[in-house]
Amino acid sequence: MSKMTAVFLPGNKQVEVRAVPVPEIGPDEVLVEIKASCICRSDLSLYYGNAVISGGDSNQFVCGHEPAGVVVRVGEAVTEFAEGDDVAVYLGVGCGVCHHCRTGHFYLCAKWKCLGFTMDGGNAEFLRVPARNLLRTPKGMSHLAAAISTDAFGTLFSAARKLGVNGLSRIGIWGMGPMGAAGTLAAKAMGGRVVALDPIAERRDFARSLGADLVLDPRDASAADQIREFAGGEGLTGAVDCSGQSVAHNMALDALAPMGKLALVGEAASTTIKPSDQLIRKQVTVFGSWYFGIDEYADILRLIETHAIDLERLATHTFALHEAETAFRMFDARETEKAVFVR
Questions:
Q1: What domains appear along the chain, each with residue ranges and CATH number?
Q2: pTM for the complete prediction?
Q3: How much is the pLDDT for 228?
């Protein structure tokens, strides 16, 4: 049986690169040769040993939930994909027949599994997935861009769409890591004006280069006043938090105009807010936004193409699979932003 290289995260900041069998596929499955697979901040929960998505022993699964590559084998029941197709992969594998699966939200399925967390993921040479999880990518899109187009860009596209971003929107984005940077690209492409906030100067500079209209250090005593002036005096129409920090939640809620909306994207186990002043009196909507419906991917690609969005700019470092220990150590230390395994 042939072997492949794969990356595992057993916890306690341990990274193991193992030789494991190339998976066999079933009738409705495909085998994808992985060409690019991103590291995400949520992967650090596996790296530390406190997985944000649980179900089974995560130590036994190949990590990685943002892969893209080429179909190299198809099951006998697969008719819509063929060997040689360029694809990205949708991270949630559902039952396929429940209400949530049939509306394109596989990750809401009661029986769902998640690439890299509760089933084998994409930080490997090959990946086995159901054909229904493939996202066909267009000619000319690199595998690197395709991998970034899913969790990083796709998640923030979906959040911006839920906020109703348009040419009249005034959007604040807290946290300019890879997700916040992707959110800046998405909101700008949809026509919104964006204020980007991050305490790290290099991230603020990057946000400015991506087209943010105003860039602020949230610790600046004048930041709230500058946001109010940017938003025309009344407040932001929408906000996105990618930091997962309670201080950011409060700052965003305070900055919202009446009837504004806040999308929570950054993972957080708990937070403290002031519902009466921040929500009830202003009729503000707060919602969680995690990933995207699979039916949204066509629009995600359309926005990328129409606005010539260069997703590769978000990848600051690339690594080979055998460099996984270095990749996760640097990512954990914030010595990289979006880091991607490439082959």
A1: 3-148+310-342 (3.90.180.10), 155-288 (3.40.50.720)
A2: 0.94
A3: 96
